[in-house]
């Protein structure tokens, strides 16, 4: 009995050892695979992590780009509109001043012609029935005052920035002389018109007037 029992116990121990060896062998075969899988997973995670950081960096740059531009002060639509209105008003003001001065120049030219080609020749003829001063009133004083006004306008605008051109001061400065001069001219206007109508009925006087007008052409 004892030998038989020992044989049976030995076989059990041998089976136990065999199972342990098989288990260890399987473990050795499977452990590299597990390690390989784990390593591959780490590399995959690493690649994903780098990709995520790159994508995040790109998105951050895109978000920061508009902010970089925003450091430059931008005007609002209302400010742009106000600036445009201001430019148009200034351009209109410059145009009005230019036209005003040109009108005054043209007026002075007409007065020059009237004095040189009409009044002076009629005075030189010394026609007894022709009242030159009554017909033309104080037109020579009007000419002088207009030349003064133009001179002041040119002084206020020459080499002066449009926004700094003070035209109103010119008219305030010459306001008194203008009123005094044109009061006389306007006061005699109706009388001068009546006188001209009477001269046109006289053929001799009418011819003198016609000669002066022809010289103007």
UniProtKB/TrEMBL annotation:
PROSITE patterns given in the database record: DH_2
Basic and acidic residues: bias regions: 49-62
Domain of life: Eukaryota
One Pfam family, short name: RhoGEF
Residue ranges of the TM segments: none
Domain annotation DH: ranges: 92-217
PANTHER family for this protein: NUCLEAR FUSION PROTEIN FUS2, RHO GUANINE NUCLEOTIDE EXCHANGE FACTOR 38
Name of the featured protein: ARH38 factor
Organism listed in the record: Vireo altiloquus (Black-whiskered vireo)
Source taxonomy: Eukaryota, Metazoa, Chordata, Craniata, Vertebrata
